[in-house]
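forwarding from the other thread:

> can someone predict this with pyridoxal-5'-phosphate?

sure thing
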Amino acid sequence: MNYYSLNKQAPKSTFKNAVIKGLAPDKGLYFPESISPLPKVFFDTIDDKSYSEIAYEAIKQFILPEIPEEVLKTIVEETLSFEFPVVKLNENISTLELFHGPTMAFKDVGARFMARCLGYFNQDNNKEVTVLVATSGDTGGAVANGFLGVKGVNVVILYPSGKVSDIQEKQLTTLGQNIKALEVNGTFDDCQAMVKTAFLDNALTSQMQLTSANSINVARWLPQLFYFMFAYKQLHKTYNNIVFSVPSGNFGNVCAGMMAQQLGLPIHHFIASNNVNNVVTRYLISQLYEPKPSIQTISNAMDVGAPSNFIRIQEIYKNQFEVLKENLSSYSFTDEETKEAMLEIYNQYNYVADPHGAVGYLGCKSYLKENPNAHCVFLETAHPTKFLDVVEDVIDKKQPLPKQIQSVMGKEKKSTVISTYEDLKAFLLE
Ligand SMILES: Cc1ncc(COP(=O)(O)O)c(C=O)c1O
Ligand SMILES: N[C@@H](CCOP(=O)(O)O)C(=O)O
């Protein structure tokens, strides 16, 4: 499969090149040249297939033959070595738990998948690759874990100082080996802008092979489409009109859901649920796309002012505003509303949601007011204990720590503080 740049000023790319380069030379995001819907029989027989089989069938058109069939099957199997359960709250609302991986956030799937693709492409290559990644909380930990010890790959993680949770910070600053953390005096958007600038800096790219492990990178982004298929497999016999409420920040996840829909998955509607960083909510009302500096919230991983992937969503809907609006709703919620939702979910359903999932739950409730016949699945994108202070404070109950979290608790943070792009460049050239 070839990929083209959404800035339309760069040559077509192979999958391998798109993975190794991350961003196109014209600074555009890569997008697959074609999307062929899966045959109807695939969905009719989804109950007979394992998660790995579903995932392999869904993604192979974007990757074969550059990674051979058997290798791709192994990559998919190794990536998906944990559970993706749907938990029903009531007749209209379920949650899809995406936090059973090693770092307890949905990013584990994309990070593990990409690490293995890059490992495959790099096996006969003596050139080291430096993976740059900007994180507002969870991508960093997942990438650190997924790429730890991968031969020939160095990882540099940029995160906004003081704006990620304590556990998220531990996950991305304590692993050592080929993983380095840069603590940026700024916001997530500053981190993401620095990373994009680095890709276009000849002084850097002439000396090192840089790539991205954010959802910019197609190998990090595309595997996220699996989640929607896994939820469908668990729900399709019980419910029609399945709607997904996706807690959104950089918009990679909801956009991956739209790719699953393009592949033929019968998804009735999407909801992009936002905290007060709500550029897309405003866009769907005014048709004006006006990114703003991000505001710090308790759902910190969604504190994104200028989401990278909105351009991919525009591409899927061919920039047709009305068509997009038919398929996507978006709502925005304050921290107070999020905390009330966490308490409501706990009191009514005895379920502990993290702040991001709670925003997703609120999105479901808003949508269901107008569409009472839908079944809305909100994605529980991270485990609640990653946001221990907020969660324990809101529901007033101590939380047991899962083993994945315990394993980083006592470890010592190692990071380098930077403020400007020049600091990043000097660090990389050192
Ligand atoms: C827990 C959590 N929820 C939601 C999001 C938002 O996802 P996306 O950036 O794909 O919109 C993130 C960050 O990616 C996250 O870490
Ligand atoms: N919310 C993310 C921000 C980066 O998103 P990505 O999907 O583009 O990596 C995070 O947790 O870091």
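The chain has a mean pLDDT of 96. thats all i got for now
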